[in-house]
Each structure stands twice: as C-alpha cells, then as structure tokens.
Hints:
Helices cover 41% and strands 15% of the residues. It contains eleven helices and ten strands. The protein has a six-stranded parallel β-sheet with strand order 7-6-5-8-9-10. Strands 2-3-1-4 form a four-stranded antiparallel β-sheet. It is α/β, with parallel strands linked by helices. It has two domains: 2-126 and 256-293, Glutamyl-tRNA reductase, N-terminal domain (Beta Polymerase, domain 2); 131-249, NAD(P)-binding Rossmann-like Domain (Rossmann fold, 3-Layer(aba) Sandwich), CATH 3.40.50. It starts with a strand and ends with a helix.
Amino acid sequence: MWSSLVLVHNDHENRIKTEFPNFVSWHTCMRSIYLSDERLLSVDIKNRFSDEYQIFYGYDAYSFLIQIVCGLHSKLFGESEIQAQFCDSFSKEKLPDNSLSAFLLKLRDQILEHTKIVRTKFLIGIGKQSYGSLTEKYISKYNRIDLIGTGNLAESLLPYLKTKNRQVNVFGRNKTRLNSLKEIFNIQTFDLEDYIPNPNPVIIAVTDMDENKTKLFHLSNCIIDFRENSKTNSLVKLKKYIPFTTLLGSIRETNILIRELKPKIELLIADLTELRQDEQTHFMNGWEDLTHAC
Length: 294
C-alpha cells in the first residue's frame, strides 16, 4: 500500500507554511510535512518544489515518517509531544472526506503501531522526557503560572503545570481552545489581549509573538520561552529569561546514550519498514485492492 506514498519535508527556519493541491499538510514549530498518494499527482512533482524541500517516496517516506513521529528528528530526542501532534493533525475529524484521507488514516494507524514498538524497545526512559518535565526545575517554587498559548504544546505542558496545586492561567486568542482547555484542566483562561503585567512566571508556548506583546512580561519573575528561534531582544537581555536553547542544555548529559541508541533505533525502523513492505508482496493487487480482488 505504501509504495505510492509521497512525503515532502521542509525544516528551514524561515519556511512559508503554504499548502499544495492533493497533499495534506502537517505543520509543527520545527518542520512542515506534506503527504499524498503518488497516483494523485502529476509526473513532474519535483518541479513543484524548490530545493529547500526534501521528497521521499514509498517505503522511504514511510520510514522517515516513523522517525519523525518517534522524535528522532526533534530538538528533544525521543520527545512524546510530536506523536500527539501527529495523532491530532491526522484525526478523522480534521481530514476531508475523500480517498486521500482514507489512505492517510490507514497510514496513521500503521505508523502509530510501529512507533509503539520503537518506543517500547528503546525510548521508555528517554521518551518520557517532555517539555513539561524540563520546566519543573524553573517553576518548582511558584504557586501561580501564566501560560501563553492554546495549541498542542500548551496542552501537553498543563498536566505538569497543574501539579502541586498550582494555579495556572492560560492566555490565548482561540476562544474555542480556551474553553476546551478550561473544561479539561479546570483552569482559568483569558484572552491574550487582557493580559496585565504581573510577577507570575510566564511560559511562552506559541510559535510567534509580536514584540510589543512580549514587553508585557518584563515584570515576571521567570520567563520560559519555547519558541525555538526566538529573536526577541527585549527578553534575551533579562537574567530571568530562559530560552529554548537553555532548556535543551539541561538534558545534554543524555547525549552519549542518544548517540548509542540512535543507530539501533534506525535499524529497527528499517526492519519494521521492510517487514511491512514484504507483507504487501503477498497480495498481487495490494492491500487497498483486496475488496475488489475477492
């Protein structure tokens, strides 16, 4: 089935999050991924993308996608948030009702099946690291936290922030998401425009933020910034400012273990991909044609 899979990848810092016909996109803060079925595309597919895009075909695309979902290409090696983002982006509710979506739903389920195998074998310890766990040593003494953002990252942080009976205030612009997070986590939510400068620690969990808005955080006792490529000069000058690079630096002691594990994980993913490819060869018409062949 996955011999016709096409995956287009772009992890350039200044990439434009655009869309392409006959592709379903998945945008994270680090990368943009576009998935499709080669049978839906024209033969000149390479001419549609500039040199900053990588194009993977068939089971190479399948293998690369497992690596992404397992967190092998994340800043935080083996992090689990990327899997949650993958599940959310390719949920049935968010895909259009067409043949490509049916194709991608099957792909999602099989990617998650193999991701579970990889995590169980190699990433139980490392994979439990998360952005939420990284924040704890910076906020452990505070009882009130202001979280900026309503996306997947913000949601993944909330279980950690809610420990020790902390009061967590979430600020954002998406009213639907604010209401959803309020109901799920029993927290206070506010429109971002209503934020008033105060001493509460601030966690910035959004991709982009206007410079004028970040100036409101100067009174905060601690500012944790999850924006990976932040160039906010008004914040970096503050001693209480903790950029994403510092958060990553706190786990550098695991780098040796990661270097040892990575080739083993890649070999396992290659083996799982080859087994999946072999499974397809048992059917003349391919899995997707079984109903027509019977």
